[in-house]
Amino acid sequence: MTSVWKSALALTALASSTLAEDVLVSEKQLQKRYIDADGNWNQSFFHINDVHAHLDEFRSSGTDCEDPSRGCYGGYARVSTVVNEIRPTLNSSLFLNAGDEFQGTLFYSYYGGEKIAETLNQLGFDGMTLGNHEFDGGDDELGEFLDNLTFPIISANIKSDHPILNRTIQPYHIYEEYGIAVIGVTTETTPNIASPGEGTTFSDVTEAVQNAIDEIRETTNITRIAALTHIGYEEDQKLAESTTGLYLIMGGHSHTPLGTGEDEEGSYPTIVRNAEDEEVFIVTAYRWGEYLGYIDVTYDAEGKILEYHGGPIHLTNETEQNATLQAQIDEWRVPFEEFAAEVIGTTNVELDQTTCQEQECLLGDFMADAMLEYRQNNSDSADFAIINAGGIRATIEQGDITRGDVLSSFPFGNSLVEVTLSGDDLWKVLEGIVTGVSQFNDEEITSFFQVSRGIKVEYNPENNNGSRLVSVTIGGEPLDRETEYNVVTLDFIAGGGDNFFANPFENVITLDTQDEILTQYIQAKSPVDIELDGRIAIVSGSAGTAGNGTSGGNGTSGGNGNNSSTFGAGNGTVPGDCPANTACTPPIFEGGATQGAFIPNAIAACFLVCLFAIL
């Protein structure tokens, strides 16, 4: 099947005066039609994912938009405008949410899920699957959130003994008026990266989806079936390839830009072939609500997609805001605004977060150094600090640093702990991270890492899995497999988060919270002026056989860190060995795998309408 496309849309002059992005449109008129002369059904889908409590507009870094002249994006007041403009022109449309509404701004840190639920209800969503971050505060908090929602919650691979979760979460929902079933699924890694209850389990995604498809086809006359997933772009493709009877997947979790132009990581939609060599269409809408996904498809009688048009709608300064909703959001800001706006220091450099899941990054260095210095001010035992890159959520831009910036970058409220590891176990921990699979339990490690001064980690991504670590230097000396090391980390990681450590450390003493420690460090170091120093480096060669963590002799350091390779956002899977003379892909970590604690009391775009030509 070959889809027929036109190449572009011109500008559309709606009330919002929004600038149209590049959008591809099928040659047939699809609006205002349920069924065409051949009996084919037209269906429109709006979809959004990984908003992470960005109810309000934000800067490109993800922090609050304090100066709109510098560029502001997203915000549910803009989403509301776009949906309310387009949707009345469509006879058959669904507005779906692919999860991870929790965690990322003070709207969640201060209010929990209360204001998020209120906003989602007002926007008129038709359904939502759950992301891993919905479980950050545990089953009781999630249950309270779900009890306040007025639309279906779907996830076929979640089973729970929690009474509210058991009652509200369904494997799929059938939209009778459109003859469409939507199946939901949530990443199986949730227990490792969030805090679900022991009685809440996450089964195999592919099996759950195929079972749901089979049940729908066996018990109803529904042929049009879509999936709403929170598993990541790479896993969406695997799901498509491994199932039958599914032709559209709307996803989230990996924060993957599709069809966004220069920085896109794939086409919108991405088309793969399923187990019966049929086309499956995959879409996702990046992160934070900067884009609203829109796709319009034509189904045949068997539920297969004949043609499509659409694209991600970029929500910029030029996208009009729903004034009523924006006023409500502004009012919700009042209780924490003064606290968040307090300037605690300045930085002469941008403390970048965007590459933290790929390589050494400035904000990772800065946070880990703050943790180490905090501990060394109180004890002489600490050797270095290590954190999970997934816990670093937003860049701190050059200029003034506010408390709100700190909480946006580190919103989880995790506490510092100090643990002791043998050199041998530490080597295995680091090998597992750079390989992407634990050397203790053979399970996926769901985040890259960042470290403090006091340690240097060199690895070779071209080596086989399990032997990528080349050299570890601690305190200027090669790691000694027989020595014990004192490691500063977070209670989330020590408790088994992201599968860094083989077994959770028990009875650890928790110290101050991460955001408090970083605030003190900024005050002490202001103005901040740092650069990468190569503490995590790509090298050639392999580890020596002496067992002491020294280099194999032919490895060369990555120097200042500029030779670090890029992993790219994905799903945490680990590639196999590399062909000769090709660049090997290091372990891939999705953008949203993070810890499940939260701070309890802490304080342009186009409209796809009206311009489709009738042939």
Brief summary of the model shown:
The longest helix is centred in the middle third of the chain and has 18 residues.
What does this protein structure show overall?
It contains 14 helices and 26 strands. The protein has helices at 76-86, 106-111, 114-123, 138-147, 163-168, 190-193, 205-219, 233-242, 323-340, 362-376, 403-409, 423-435, 491-494, 514-525, and strands at 41-48, 93-97, 127-128, 153-154, 158-160, 169-170, 172-175, 180-186, 200-202, 224-230, 248-251, 270-273, 279-284, 291-299, 305-310, 313-314, 343-347, 384-388, 399-402, 416-422, 449-451, 455-459, 469-474, 477-478, 484-490, 536-538. Helix 10 (362-376) packs across helix 14 (514-525). By secondary structure, it is of the alpha/beta class. Strands 1, 2, 3, 14, 15 and 16 form a six-stranded mixed beta sheet that branches. It is globular.
What's the structural blueprint in terms of helices and strands?
Layout (H helix, E strand, L loop, with lengths): L40 E8 L27 H11 L6 E5 L8 H6 L2 H10 L3 E2 L9 H10 L5 E2 L3 E3 L2 H6 E2 L1 E4 L4 E7 L3 H4 L6 E3 L2 H15 L4 E7 L2 H10 L5 E4 L18 E4 L5 E6 L6 E9 L5 E6 L2 E2 L8 H18 L2 E5 L14 H15 L7 E5 L10 E4 H7 L6 E7 H13 L13 E3 L3 E5 L9 E6 L2 E2 L5 E7 H4 L19 H12 L10 E3 L77
Parallel strand pairs: 1-2, 2-3, 4-6, 8-10, 10-11, 11-13, 18-25, 22-26
Antiparallel strand pairs: 1-14, 5-9, 7-8, 12-13, 14-15, 14-16, 17-19, 18-21, 20-25, 22-23, 23-24
